[in-house]
Amino acid sequence: MGLLNFPVNIPIRIDGRYKLQEPIGSGSYGAVYKATNLISRRVYAVKLEPHSGGASTIEQEYHILKQLKGQPGVVRAHWFGRELNFNAIVLDLLGPSLQDILAQRKTLSPSIVHHLGDQLLSQIQYIHSNSYIHGDIKPQNILVGLGDQAITPYLIDFGVSKQYRNSATGDHIPFRHARRSHMIGTPIFASINSHLGAELSQRDDLESLVYVLIYFMRGSLPWLQVDRRTRKNSKSSALNMKQTTPVEALCCGFPAEMSTILIYTRMLSFSETPDYDYIRSLLMSLQNDSLSPADILSLIRDELRLPNSHASTHNDPKSLCGGEAQFCGSPLKKRVTNCPPPPPTPAHL
Ligand SMILES: Nc1ncnc2c1ncn2[C@@H]1O[C@H](COP(=O)(O)OP(=O)(O)O)[C@@H](O)[C@H]1O
Ligand SMILES: [Mg+2]
Fold first, then answer.
1. Which atom number of ligand 1 is nearest to the Cα of residue 94?
2. Are 130 and 67 in contact (CB under 8 A)?
3. Based on the domain organization, do 231 and 170 belong to the same domain?
4. CATH code at 149?
5. In a domain, 338, yes or no
6. How far apart are CA 342 and CA 335, in angstroms?
7. Cα angle 296, 297, 300; round to 5
8. Same-domain check for residues 87 and 119
9. Which residue lies with its CA nearest to atom 11 of ligand 1?
10. Which of 332, 348, 329 is nearest to 118 (CA)?
11. Is the residue at 43 inside a domain?
12. Residue 79 Cβ < 6 Å to ligand 1
């Protein structure tokens, strides 16, 4: 639900001690506000969802975050409860989303994408080791931290997460074609199997992660502009474009290992445990061997900050990469250059 659709009588305080301030974001289920703790004066994020009496997505988020807590990239949840006609969760305040950053930067350099990919992969592996899948991996759901944590990506929004196995017995849920009429997750970053209505499992989080990483490097995806209402089987649907865009075209200009990762994640079977280390080793191809660890750190700090919020330009990625910002990450590694053309962009776009 977007902010504009929200009922007007929003609570002024949450749990008596968090004073609500300006809105900072909204998504499909709730609206997020800054809030000050009146005792400590610390600022938090509060996510609100209208209380309907039915199952609460943010209550489920709270329980999952409590289970995952303590791991890098897991936002701390401080309180969950009801306030007026809303369910509310109080979270640590984080920085901008990767979508916000990309909106300003257009693309991220391979060293940063390696850094993000490596950390996000570990987070996804950790979530999976706790028997959950995330289910909606996309740039809007990846935020960077504040202060010391400004180079740590946080995977947020466990609103559609679910258990893919019984945590006590380890038994995997059975495969089925979902009965629901609409897909889970976001079409742009959803796996092909998710479009086809299959029950989600570990493989789908990883395929989504690859689309996210490709999106970071290209600044776009061939199906980015596809209208949500486009019929699933039409040639211009996101599903059709994912199925018909040659992997080499999608990964053109990147190290060949990116294509291998995408093919690998698409070939995983429903209940297969992914080989996370294999993916991690392939992601290494994005690393820039000619940069020192200190250079990489300052590059990351610089690139993961919104451009209009920093003054220094001496760490401009272009200057560190000799002017070729986009694929300067792996000068010695073999890149796919013989690229087949992508399918034509739909006429209505
Ligand atoms: N802890 C947080 N700190 C700062 N901003 C946040 C935080 N959590 C969410 N947001 C902002 O609110 C947006 C929506 O939050 P999200 O949890 O994804 O809600 P939804 O389930 O509605 O998609 C995010 O994309 C982000 O911009
Ligand atoms: Mg979200």
1. 3
2. yes
3. yes
4. 1.10.510.10
5. no
6. 17
7. 85
8. no
9. 25
10. 329
11. yes
12. no
Q: Which residues contact 308 (CB under 8 A, 6 or more apart)?
A: 104
Domain range spanning residue 126? 96-304
pTM exceeds 0.90, yes or no: no
Ligand 1 nearest-atom number relative to CA 1: 22
Using one digit for the tens of pLDDT, what is the confidence trace for 161-198? 999 999 999 999 999 886 555 677 788 999 999 999 99
What spacing in Å lies between the alpha carbon of 35 and ligand 1's midpoint? 13
Q: Whose CA is nearest to atom 18 of ligand 1?
A: 157
136 is catalytic: yes
pLDDT confidence of 218, banded at 50, 70, 90? very high
CB-count burial class (<10 Å; 0-12, 13-18, 19+) for 322: exposed
Distance 94 CA to ligand 1 centre (A): 9
- 47 annotated among ligand-binding-site residues: yes
Identity of residue 140: Q
Confidence label for 328 from pLDDT (cuts 50, 70 and 90) = very low
CB-based burial, 144-178: b 16+ in 10 Å, e otherwise: bbeeebebbbbbbbbbbbbebbeeeeeebbeeeee
What's the CATH code of the domain at 49? 3.30.200.20
Q: How many whole angstroms separate alpha carbon 302 and alpha carbon 144?
A: 12
Q: What is the mean pLDDT of residues 152-167?
A: 96
* Structural contact between residues 276 and 121, judged by C-beta atoms closer than 8 angstroms: yes
- Is there a domain that residue 109 lies in? yes
Name the burial class of residue 115, with classes exposed (0-12), middle (13-18) and buried (19+) by CB atoms within 10 angstroms of its CB: buried
| Ligand 2 centroid – CA 142 distance (Å) | 9
